[in-house]
Amino acid sequence: MQGPSPVVVSLERLGPLAGDAGGLLFFAYWSTRSRAIALPPMVAVLLDLATLVLMTTAVLGYQLIQDEMPRAWVGWAGVAAVGLGFGGSLPLLCAGLVLFGLSVTWGGVFPQLPGWLLVVGGLVLMMGWTYASNFGRAFARPSPWWEAAMGAALVMVAAALADLDVLGREQRTRR
What is the spatial distance between Cα 96 and Cα 81, in angstroms, rounded to a whole number? Predict the structure, then answer.
């Protein structure tokens, strides 16, 4: 019987590192979308592509690590929603973060804290997209309350992706 393919091994190894960088870029990605900040076209394309590649690689790599859990389909649905959400649907992206966070909390492979941070962060971002007045419009910014809530949620998402790397590495070294 052969072991995992080289692609799977690479994604499992690169996922945590991509999560560290992707969480930080996601902060910039979301901030530009919520305020409709007009970036130079090349910068906007690079930000979008880098965030898409890093975030998708991160959640895919983590999901491959926890693939043997009983409710793995929830994580796979989250991975798909995150990837598709970068196509222009911020609510789908948020739903993907929530689903992936639930799979982390239920899986038992990683500590539960990063999963809960992803769930709460994804829900707050989805609520901000839904309820923040003038979200995504250049002529008006969301209220300071929504900006603070979405900023805290973005920090939660970035922290969760970094925590999965650190706590997951810590767990693997103990075994």
Answer: 4
- In SS3 terms, the chain reads as CCCCCHHHHHHHHHHHHHHHHHHHHHHHHHHHHHHCCCCCHHHHHHHHHHHHHHHHHHHHHHHHHCCCCCCHHHHHHHHHHHHHHCCCCHHHHHHHHHHHHHHHHHHCCCCHHHHHHHHHHHHHHHHHHHHCCCCCCCCCCCCHHHHHHHHHHHHHHHHHHHHHHHHHHHHHHHC
Q: What is the pLDDT of residues 152-169, one digit of tens each?
A: 999 999 999 888 876 555
Question: Looking at residues 79-106, what average pLDDT do you find?
Answer: 92
Rounded CA gap, 135 and 125, in Å?
11
What span, in angstroms and rounded, lies between the C-alpha atoms of 166 and 73?
A: 24
State the pTM of this model: 0.86
- One-letter amino acid at 99 equals L
